[in-house]
Amino acid sequence: MPLDRRRVIRYVGIIVFPTVIHGLGLQPASMPHSASTSTSFVDRLRTVQRRKASVVCVGLDPDPDRLPVPVRDGDSLAASITSFCREIIHATAEYACAFKLNFAFFEALGPVGAQVLEETASAIPDDCLVIGDAKRGDIGNSARFYAHAVFNHMHCDAITVAPYMGHDSVTPFLETEGTCAFVLARTSNPGAGDFQEACTCDGEPLYLHTARKVAEWNGDYPGTAGLVAGATSPEALGELRNACPTLPFLIPGVGSQGGDPVAVMQAAATDEGLVIVNSSRSIIYASEGNDFAAAAAGAARRLRDVLNAEPNEAN
Amino acid sequence: MPLDRRRVIRYVGIIVFPTVIHGLGLQPASMPHSASTSTSFVDRLRTVQRRKASVVCVGLDPDPDRLPVPVRDGDSLAASITSFCREIIHATAEYACAFKLNFAFFEALGPVGAQVLEETASAIPDDCLVIGDAKRGDIGNSARFYAHAVFNHMHCDAITVAPYMGHDSVTPFLETEGTCAFVLARTSNPGAGDFQEACTCDGEPLYLHTARKVAEWNGDYPGTAGLVAGATSPEALGELRNACPTLPFLIPGVGSQGGDPVAVMQAAATDEGLVIVNSSRSIIYASEGNDFAAAAAGAARRLRDVLNAEPNEAN
Fold this sequence. Notes:
Two copies of one chain form a homodimer.
Chain A: H1 2-16, H2 41-52, E1 56-60, H3 77-92, E2 98-102, H4 103-107, H5 112-122, E3 129-136, H6 140-153, E4 158-161, H7 167-170, E5 180-186, E6 200-201, E7 204-205, H8 206-220, E8 225-229, H9 234-243, E9 249-251, H10 261-268, E10 275-279, H11 281-284, H12 292-308, H13 311-314
Helix pairs in contact in A: 3-5, 3-12, 8-9, 9-10
């Protein structure tokens, strides 16, 4: 029920939005979603994950150099990428609770990229959540405009946010009820060592200090904040889960980046602490041949099964 | 000369880019700019600032709720914003060395926003630099795609970058010769206290540690990195200048945010340490009446004069 309503509201939001424009301007980003306020993002996520029996998120990073052969002959690069994403979505949705759209790959197409992104988000079925991997972060006034773009135009249920500029750059993303801002805490890349681990506050590393701040801000907007916590450091994942027992975690870094799915689940998944485990390249580029969609489906299914296995089964 | 060449190369870059596509994919972002490599961003900035006798950057934050009366009757919100930006650019360019495009306000228009942004960037005259205030930051592979979008499609000479994810999220923005990545160090907003000031590394605040890292990365790509350092803390500005004597600083926070232009110049401007002082709202919204363009020009001219005054004159 909440999922169907959400999708209906998503489209209604687009259609009715001009009627809630204030003057020539924008209402707070919460307006078009206001009818869906009864269900928080965390509750929606829990419902989806139970229904689909999956914590897998399929990451859509459509790299023009890696498109499978069957979709390379589109009328344009934009058309090829749209086809590729649609086929991947169609093939893998059964095994996923969410899709993550990496905005970089769409923006690199030029102005048409925003249209491709919007069309791709619209192709994601109702029973999956849509995460805009945009890593936005700016002062309050600008952040509100970014939130409006991602939640209202790009049909996203969640966004990734960079915390460097502090509270007034993050909280505008928490004001749209029913959505979620996954704030970078401890990322999966080599550069995580430069600031997140090297800097400290009150004796704790920056990534943990960030997480505590996010939990504090979430208190003012319950159910709207989460953390990005990479699979490449299960130890940090465990610390973050201890510090933030109820925040949902978006976990990149399994697959191509080498994170161990079983260790991730042991460190971070609890009854009240939900996880979304993302894999991009190792699913969507599982084959570059005619079987690319089936191969992606197989990779998503296998990841789902590994993540669902009891620790004894997995080992 | 370098400026004219740069602009020519900017357009040539767009036109010839399809011929340098590798397969269906993208070459490194440096390709379309490779012909302009003989002039670094810092050298170009120095030339522009001398020629224009100005360190002023006009920030374009086109807020639909604040459009002046004469441009409110466009065929669409996108058309109104395009007109507004063009008129502001035309009126203020004489007094500015650069324009800063705040991507949030363009993205909030929906898919058409990318087109509005591209058209606005194209309207900026040859003798001003274009800064894309995008605050991007993602793992290396994604960062390269963001760099391509901003430097090649959006015609920007520089971009703002968020450093939280460390070196592999920043250095891809340093690979396009002739351009610059202004990395957030100490921002002008209230949230600067949450992490930038509260966290430390080797006894120094995060903002200073960030600056030292940026200077280190700039060593591998000379002349391609700068810092964002807010006007609201002249003390931090001075520390940052001492730590990074040759990096250019992009300084927001004068005008509506209350930073003192004179204190900014005393703290950060040196012969070898260039500054770009941005003002957005107090220039572009100087009047909402028929005189909005003239009022913006007046505000830009006054800021230029205050920034150019010798300390004795200003006090």
